[in-house]
Recover the amino acids of this structure.
């Protein structure tokens, strides 16, 4: 199967036999930081790159200590999210406080704040595993002025599970020859799994909006209550 990514975005191309040698790990960390901390990094490969980096280290294609690379990736992911939060907290209020703004309204920020106060931990951690979403969530949370200590805690947890977890998964599966020979298929599976939460949340948001319109209530409150209801039903 031909790769669905252009060469300059295909991790199996720019990481394998890189002229940078072991220094290519710094490139991986830079991409992780840009994707999680800078709004312009939303198009960069995340899950597939981490998986490939772990695989190439385990097979010796990248001569670097696996645990050291995981630690560096986790640190880059933490700093990235903290940067996104800082951008949102500093630039966001100035935008949302404009009285005549049609696109950005203060009540939307307050609603987002209420949502993340109730579901911030789960939302932040899950967002790590969803392409594009993981780029914008830290900024949104910063705009919503989520508690800094709470954000940092869940930022670290998410970075460890995503940055370390996906990399180690690639290293473990890299021991199997079939995985290395079918890396393109693995990429597609990773992307498909990653976007499942997006469609689930879009569906729940659509249903909450329809229910709010029928009952004349706030759609954001309906969305929050739906998540609370799902949470309670699990117990």
């Amino acid at each position: 199967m031909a790769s669905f990514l252009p060469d300059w975005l295909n991790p199996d191309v720019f990481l394998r036999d890189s002229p940078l040698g072991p220094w290519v790990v710094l490139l991986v960390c830079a991409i992780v930081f840009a994707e999680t901390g800078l709004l312009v990094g939303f198009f960069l490969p995340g899950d597939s790159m981490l998986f490939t980096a772990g695989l190439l280290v385990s097979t010796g294609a990248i001569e670097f200590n696996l645990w050291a690379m995981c630690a560096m990736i986790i640190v880059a992911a933490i700093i990235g999210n903290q940067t996104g939060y800082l951008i949102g907290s500093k630039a966001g209020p100035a935008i949302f406080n404009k009285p005549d703004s049609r696109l950005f309204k203060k009540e939307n920020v307050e609603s987002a704040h209420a949502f993340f106060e109730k579901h911030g931990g789960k939302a932040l951690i899950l967002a790590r595993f969803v392409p594009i979403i993981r780029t914008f969530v830290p900024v949104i949370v910063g705009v919503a002025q989520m508690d800094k200590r709470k954000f940092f805690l869940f930022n670290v947890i998410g970075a460890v599970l995503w940055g370390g977890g996906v990399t180690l998964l690639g290293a473990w599966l890299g021991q199997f020859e079939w995985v290395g020979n079918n890396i393109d298929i693995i990429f597609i599976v990773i992307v498909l799994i990653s976007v499942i939460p997006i469609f689930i949340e879009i569906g729940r948001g659509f249903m909450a909006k329809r229910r709010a319109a029928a009952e004349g209530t706030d759609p954001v409150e309906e969305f929050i209550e739906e998540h609370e209801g799902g949470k309670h039903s699990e117990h």
In short: The CA atoms of residues 50 and 167 lie 5 Å apart. Residues 230-235 have pLDDT under 50 and may be disordered.
